[in-house]
């Protein structure tokens, strides 16, 4: 018998949930205590849209943690190893957040909304608790809360035309992670050039959940002439592009160095931040494992993997695969994986214990495409 997952009121719905259901949402996961749509039942069409067309994604699960008050910027600086010198209103940045041991606990997009307000657009862990606890313990004058804000992503090479039709040509010159306040029919939004794909696109941060269904319809209408259709953060595209999925790719011991996030950190800055001492000694110690791509032999995988697969080399455990799929663009099965540096340096293939039998794989740099 198929196992059913019981879900109660603790698991929340995004303001786009009913509209997404009506448009064929076929499967969901749970992310930030919410339903996250993961399929509309046609993976080939959903991939095609994000690679060559345009797709709309209900990513209301990207919750915002607002830091509001005189110490908002000081708290943000204490929470991340990224250097936030000169951070401007309207500017976003991808920021690692670590614990005091230098282990990664989230990788949000940070947005400076006003002088005294910052949003952390978080991945799947409870940063409102972490940030609120730290602010309280340090006696900072800042209020930490989750506002009524829900992103809707428009991704793919034609997203720029859809969004320009809706808001005007100014959106074409917005820089990556740049954003501005905007509105549609009086619906308050933040429009950002961002999204979890390397195909280009925008995110509309809806600032009033009552208008979820209406905003969904407006985007659908604007995109109709460009062949827009529903989609989800795309499993195959993110493996091709090597985008990090916190919680899927990471474990309790993962450091930002292992993920190649060096360019998003400044551990030598004057500012103090959580994990500074630990990160400095981790940098000195060097890497024992690293986030890498794999090209995997054999028949195309018939489905996506839903668990970690073990990696071995000459009989020794050398790491795990966290996502794997057949890629049409790579003409191969591909994966993202965490692999020991000794296995990488050996230059030898690894053995993947896949759900469809043992397969040989070559370790390659990310991104794969
Ligand atoms: N959009 C918004 N919020 C989010 C995500 C998003 N919150 C959760 C999750 N995604 C956060 N994680 C990421 C991971 C990667 C990127 C963005 C958010 C990303 N990375 C590019 C890269 O790695 O090449 C660019 C990074 C850069 O150059 O700064 O885009 O998608 N609102």
What report would you give on this structure?
- This protein is α+β, with helices and mostly antiparallel strands and 369 residues long.
- The chain folds into two domains: 136 residues, Probable tRNA modification gtpase trme, domain 1 (Gyrase A, domain 2), CATH 3.30.1360.120; 123 residues, Elongation Factor Tu (Ef-tu), domain 3, CATH 2.40.30.110.
- It is 21% helix and 31% strand.
- It is built from nine helices and 21 strands.
- The strands form five sheets. The protein has a six-stranded mixed β-sheet. A six-stranded antiparallel β-barrel has the order 16-19-18-17-20-21. Strands 5-8-9-4-10 form a five-stranded antiparallel β-sheet.
- A hairpin with a 2-residue loop joins strand 8 and strand 9.
- The longest helix is centred in the middle third of the chain and has 12 residues.
- It starts with 16 loop residues before the first helix and ends in a 5-residue tail after the last strand.
- 46% of the residues are buried.
- The model has no long low-confidence stretch (mean pLDDT 97).
- (6S)-5,6,7,8-tetrahydrofolate (THG) binds next to loops.
């Amino acid at each position: 018998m198929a196992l059913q997952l019981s879900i109660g009121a603790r698991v929340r719905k995004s303001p786009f949930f009913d509209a997404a259901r009506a448009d064929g949402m076929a499967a969901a996961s749970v992310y930030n205590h919410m339903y996250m749509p993961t399929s509309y039942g046609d993976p080939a069409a959903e991939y095609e849209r994000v690679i060559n067309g345009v797709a709309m994604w209900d990513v209301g699960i990207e919750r915002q943690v607002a830091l509001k008050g005189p110490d908002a910027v000081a708290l943000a600086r204490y929470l991340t190893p990224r250097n936030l010198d000169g951070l401007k209103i309207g500017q976003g940045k991808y920021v690692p957040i670590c614990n005091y041991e230098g282990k990664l606990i989230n990788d949000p997009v940070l947005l400076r909304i006003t002088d005294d307000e910052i949003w952390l657009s978080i991945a799947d862990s409870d940063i409102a608790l972490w940030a609120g606890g730290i602010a309280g313990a340090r006696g900072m004058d800042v209020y930490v809360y989750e506002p009524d804000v829900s992103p809707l992503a428009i991704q793919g090479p034609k997203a720029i035309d859809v969004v320009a039709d809706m808001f005007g040509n100014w959106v074409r010159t917005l820089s990556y992670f740049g954003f501005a306040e905007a509105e549609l029919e009086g619906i308050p939004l933040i429009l950002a050039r961002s999204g979890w794909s390397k195909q280009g696109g925008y995110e509309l941060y809806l600032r009033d959940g009552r208008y979820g269904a209406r905003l969904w319809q407006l985007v659908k209408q604007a995109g109709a002439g460009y062949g827009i259709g529903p989609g989800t953060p795309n499993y195959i595209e993110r493996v091709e592009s090597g985008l990090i999925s916190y919680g899927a790719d990471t474990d309790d011991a993962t450091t930002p160095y292992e993920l190649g996030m060096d360019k998003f950190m400044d551990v030598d800055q004057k500012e103090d931040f959580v994990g500074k001492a630990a990160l400095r000694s981790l940098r000195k110690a060097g890497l024992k494992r690293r986030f890498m791509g794999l090209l995997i032999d054999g028949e195309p995988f018939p489905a996506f993997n839903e668990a970690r697969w073990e990696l071995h080399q000459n009989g020794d455990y050398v790491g795990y695969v966290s996502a794997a799929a057949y890629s049409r663009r790579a003409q191969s099965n591909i994966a993202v994986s965490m692999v020991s540096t000794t296995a990488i340096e050996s230059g030898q293939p690894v053995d993947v214990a896949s759900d469809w039998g043992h397969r040989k794989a070559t370790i390659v740099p990310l991104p794969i495409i």
